[in-house]
Specification:
The protein is of the alpha/beta class and 175 residues long. The chain has one domain: Rossmann fold. It is 23% helix and 38% strand. It contains 3 helices and 9 strands. A 6-stranded mixed sheet has the order 4-3-2-5-6-7, with helices on both faces. The chain has a 3-stranded antiparallel sheet with strand order 1-9-8. Helix 1 crosses helix 2. The two termini are 14 Å apart. Bound molecules: inosinic acid (IMP) and magnesium ion.
Length: 175
């Protein structure tokens, strides 16, 4: 581990859990009566989706998709690849994509396009963090946990080079 990297607390456990519970209530109200598929985007969304699942008050089924966006440092190159595909038949189903963070929008835009052409009936998006300032593609986000600054966030599932996912809070990388 690079000992020069410092992290700074951005959102503590209570703030995250309170907001995720609110999102769960909002989503439940909107999805009442729909037989929807919750789609977690691996790996960053795992903590968020695990908490969101327990905050939802309506039934749903669960699946995951893995995507990898090629980056140089923290800047995406625009090339996206599906590394693990959904196992469910989602044709004509309502999907709710669960993302950790929307940054440039390149990953989400690609996912929305793919799932749409492959027959999803509707696709909504819930993201824990939204880094609007960095957007390159104007992609929609239906449920946003927190609007965040143009910094690099780690913890609560989010990583920097595979590290820091285990932190129970969100922090920013500082140097
Ligand atoms: P985008 O394609 O630029 O919107 O990037 C989306 C993906 O990049 C997210 O789903 C994350 O996996 C990763 N990412 C972007 N910003 C951050 C960050 O601040 N911390 C950790 N991962 C990030
Ligand atoms: Mg992600």
């Amino acid at each position: 581990m690079n000992s020069n990297i410092k992290i700074k607390l951005a959102l503590d456990r209570d703030a995250i859990h309170q907001r995720v519970n609110e999102m769960g209530r909002d989503i439940s109200a909107d999805f009442k009566g729909k037989d929807f598929l919750l789609v977690g985007v691996l790996k960053g969304s795992v903590c968020f989706i695990a908490d969101l699942m327990r905050a939802l008050e309506v039934p749903y089924t669960l699946d995951f998709i893995g995507v990898s966006t090629y980056r140089e440092g923290t800047t995406p190159s625009g090339r996206v690849e599906i590394t693990y595909d959904l196992q469910s038949n989602f044709k004509d189903r309502d999907l709710l994509i669960v993302e950790d963070i929307v940054d440039t929008g390149i990953t989400l835009d690609y996912l929305l396009g793919q799932l749409k052409v492959r027959g999803a009936k509707s696709i909504a998006v819930a993201t824990l963090l939204n880094k609007k300032e960095r957007r390159k593609i104007d992609v929609k986000t239906d449920y946003v946990g927190f609007e965040v600054e143009n910094k690099f966030y780690v913890g609560y599932g989010l990583d920097y080079k595979g590290m820091y996912r285990h932190l129970p809070f969100l922090a920013t990388l500082e140097n």
